[in-house]
Hints:
The protein is α+β, with helices and mostly antiparallel strands.
Amino acid sequence: MKKIFPGLLFAAAILGITSFGTCAPINERNEFIVLLIRSFQTVSREATIIGDESTIFNFVRTLKESPIVEYAMFIDKNGVIQAHNDPKMLGKSVTDEIGKKDLANRDPFGLRLEDFKGLNNQKMYDASLPVVIGASREFHGTVRIGFKGLK
C-alpha cells in the first residue's frame, strides 16, 4: 500500500499538470497551487518513509512540465537541496530569504505562499510546506514550488 499511494498522487498530478492551461481563472489557479504543493508534500513524506528518493525526483520532473512551474525542490532538514528540476542545484544549501522562511515553518498545514520578482522582473510565487512524519511531527525537510505567469 505504501508504494501505491505516492503512485496515485503522482498520476493525479500528471493529469492536473497536463490538463491545466495558463488561461484558467485565478481562483482555479490558487486551488491548483494548493493541490500541487500538498501533493508534493505527501509524495515526499511517503517517499521518505519508504526510503525511495526516486519518487521525489519523478514528481519534481513532472511538476516542471507545467508551463506555470519555474522550479520545484525538496530541501532536507539541514537546508540542503536533495531534489531539484535543475541538477546543478543538487547538494547546495538554501541561502535565499524566502527559502530560510520556508525552512523555519514546521506546521504541516501551514502553507507558505510568498510573491517575489523573478528574472526580467516577472511576478512569481513561492509555495512551500514542511515534510513531517509521525505523531510527533518530526521535521524531515521542506517542499517548494515556484510559480510564474500568474496574474
